[in-house]
Amino acid sequence: MTDTTANGGPVLTTQDGTPLKVSLARALRREKMRSLVLIAPLLIFILVSFLLPIADMLFRSVENRIVADTLPKTVAALSAWNASSGELPDENVYAALHDDLLIAVDEKSHTRLGSRLNYELSGMSSLFRKTGRRVDRMDEGNYKEQFIKVDKDWGKVETWLFLKRYSPKYTPGYFLNAVDAEYGIEGIKMKPEDERIYLYLFWRTMFLSMVITGSCLLLGYPIAFLLANLPLRYSNLLMILVLLPFWTSLLVRTSAWKVLLQQQGVINDTLVWLGLVSNTDRIVMINNQTGTIIAMTHILLPFMILPLYSVMRTISPSYMRAARSLGATDWTAFWRVYFPQTIPGIGAGAILVFILSIGYYITPELVGGTDGIFISNRIAYHISSSLNWGLAAALGVILLSLVLLLFYVYDKIVGIDNVKLG
Amino acid sequence: MSEKDIIVSFSEVQKSYDGVSLVVKNLNLDIQRGEFLTMLGPSGSGKTTCLMMLAGFESATHGEIYLNGRPINNVPPHKRGIGMVFQNYALFPHMTVAENLAFPLQVRKMSKAEQEQKVKRALEMVELGAFGNRRPAQLSGGQQQRVAVARALVFEPELVLMDEPLGALDKQLREQMQFEIKHIHENLGVSVVYVTHDQSEALTMSDRIAVFNDGIIQQLSGPDDLYEDPQNSFVAQFIGENNKLEGKVTHVNGSLCDVELDDGTRLKADKVNVNAVGDRTTLSLRPERIEFEPQGLENIVKGKVEELIYLGDHIRVRMDVAGNREFVVKVRNRGQKRDLAVGQMVDIGWAADDCKALDFVQ
Ligand SMILES: Nc1ncnc2c1ncn2[C@@H]1O[C@H](COP(=O)(O)OP(=O)(O)OP(=O)(O)O)[C@@H](O)[C@H]1O
Ligand SMILES: [Mg+2]
């Protein structure tokens, strides 16, 4: 090699003079195209059926077009109003509201707007409903008076402040709600103590998930160890037993726990029969946190065992032997030599179980009662019962960010490339 | 040899894993203090099993193993104080080289200062003084090997076991490490039990070699005896190159005997492992002991040259002798041109002492 081709010299070229990098990239492009074509169907499917809906859903956590869409003229007129003056808006605004509501009532969209605004300030739903019923009977001119006659809320500055606050197309309202704060008349503040639920629910979700992860680890580690060290014949059988739950429906397994754990259930009956528990104070093991922890530990256990097993299987028994020949007792050999080598497996299993459980829905719903439910149950409630999709989306975004944050922290501490899943 | 000179003694040891077949059959073996003893044998002959029983990772099915005169069948591995080097080194991957070496000292609760000093000395012994802070994965195979040796020695055991420690290295490195291990053994005076299935390794390193086959020690002797005086056909065949001729004993005369080969050729041989006239026997003959100018030798036969292979310092001549077409003669290359040609019939000969009459195996 000559000096010119060393660092800082001219770039290497192929025989025909194209730079080496360019022709390499060209050669690789075909391969890349081919792999792209191979994954394209799945990619498109996921994009259309999964990613786009999710993006749309998440977008709802800040989206607030309904006010501007339903009351376009009012919103425009309100922008000229000086909110800090402490005076009611002038006649223009009321006239605009009249115009807007006439159309809205026609399209029946005023009730939707009412319920949307009711999330933020109670009383808004009935205000719009009531006003909607009267608006087409109003006379031309002097709308301000007529609106105030319909409902004296229209004569309050607070109502208009509120409308102005929620007239932009995007709002932080849902997110504030999701962390137990509100964007009230006086600005952002925490809700009164007795109305706070989400922060506590987030905390409980994290805490229960940690407990579940911990118990999965405690129960799963010995099993994985056994699996990895048993002769193939037995370990295959054991492996089938570990995988068995995967072949049974989640609902069935959760229901089975109901049968086992309830107060008239198998476990309580047995304890009573054995005389360990008196018939009058049977243990409450279901519809509370205990139920959630037991059932979810059972359901998520394989996700702990499998990564642990796959790591343990690669640890040669000669390490333990070496440690013992060097003078270590069984326990020291395990703790100083074997255990540290299983940490990547513990990391993988723990993160898998934790992330799965933090977003779990079915099982807490069925066996969690009121104090054993997770944030996801609340999200589901807002999606399907209260229809407050914006709040559901905000809660979802927070949950997602939490998981990503945990991933990041985990990566900083353990290192994601230390994780072995198989 | 007094009792005190024996560090390890196997007494009628048998081992079965499955309760059906014996992997080690009635092993009796005394290992002397300071000795380099090699267990040599083909794959599956039970060498590792013997080592594992000695280290305490397998229990003997029958018999007793003594260490310094004390029975150790019920002593757990960590209390035996035996150093061990594993075939795949078994260096702890999550510890640095220095931590690996300090491990046996830590579990012995030595002071930090003492640990450091011993680790340093051990690293210097294997010429890896600058590598203490590396992880095993950052070392070459040969360096890992040396760390494994240093770790097995750092707590100053009287006895070190090595199970094919050089198996994973290439030829050149293996030869260098053979030399180094041998050197360490001589300097420290530690007893070494070494397992290999590489006979040249065994011959170069050992004080004594126990040749294993099928769970039995076939022969236990020094390297030269093993080569010069094999006690049975397995050993003759396993150690070095060997020509086999089969026949029947026709006459016994003191330490010599007459043998008639299957094609009628009559030969004189050293009577090693045959009992009586009429026994079938395998004659064993080293290729370099055969002469092309056989004047005055006890055995002279005719052979046909089948193939000549030029190997620089010597020439291998493959011949057809008494019906054995794989008969090999090694001729030293003395410079003058040999007038051997393929297809030629020539006289070859050897001394009766160089021709061992051994047991007959099918
Ligand atoms: N843990 C075990 N369970 C059952 N059989 C075993 C076990 N370990 C070894 N064996 C059997 O015992 C016999 C002797 O094995 P061993 O490992 O002692 O042979 P070796 O001489 O060390 O061979 P190699 O040179 O291949 O290492 C073999 O037939 C082997 O299949
Ligand atoms: Mg072996």
From TrEMBL, chain A:
Coiled-coil region list: none
GO cellular component terms, semicolon-separated: plasma membrane
Topology of this chain in the membrane: Multi-pass membrane protein
Subcellular location: Cell membrane
Cross-referenced CDD domains: TM_PBP2 (cd06261)
Gene Ontology biological-process entries: transmembrane transport
Positions of the ABC transmembrane type-1 domain: 202-410
Keyword Cell membrane listed: yes
Stated name of the protein: ABC transporter permease subunit
Originating species: Stappia sediminis
UniProtKB/TrEMBL annotation, chain B:
Enzyme Commission numbers on file: 7.6.2.11
GO CC terms in record: ATP-binding cassette (ABC) transporter complex
Compartment list: Cell inner membrane
Top-level division of the source organism's lineage: Bacteria
PROSITE patterns: ABC_TRANSPORTER_1, ABC_TRANSPORTER_2
Gene3D superfamilies in the cross-refs: 2.40.50.100, P-loop containing nucleotide triphosphate hydrolases
Record's keyword annotation contains ATP-binding: yes
This protein's UniProt keywords: ATP-binding, Cell membrane, Membrane, Nucleotide-binding, Translocase, Transport
UniProt xrefs under Pfam families: ABC_tran, TOBE_2
Record's catalysed reaction(s): ATP + H2O + polyamine-[polyamine-binding protein]Side 1 = ADP + phosphate + polyamineSide 2 + [polyamine-binding protein]Side 1
Membrane topology: Peripheral membrane protein
Main location: membrane
InterPro entries cross-referenced by the UniProt entry: AAA+_ATPase, ABC_SmlMolc_Importer, ABC_transporter-like_ATP-bd, ABC_transporter-like_CS, Mo/tungstate-bd_C_term_dom, P-loop_NTPase, PotA-like, Transp-assoc_OB_typ2
Enzyme class name: translocase
Signal peptide location: none
GO molecular function: ABC-type polyamine transporter activity; ATP binding; ATP hydrolysis activity
Domain ABC transporter: 8-239
Subunit structure: The complex is composed of two ATP-binding proteins (PotA), two transmembrane proteins (PotB and PotC) and a solute-binding protein (PotD).
Known role: Part of the ABC transporter complex PotABCD involved in spermidine/putrescine import. Responsible for energy coupling to the transport system.
Family, similarity comment: Belongs to the ABC transporter superfamily. Spermidine/putrescine importer (TC 3.A.1.11.1) family.
Name of this chain's protein: Spermidine/putrescine import ATP-binding protein PotA
Species: Stappia sediminis
Lineage: Bacteria, Pseudomonadati, Pseudomonadota, Alphaproteobacteria, Hyphomicrobiales
Gene that this polypeptide is encoded by: potA
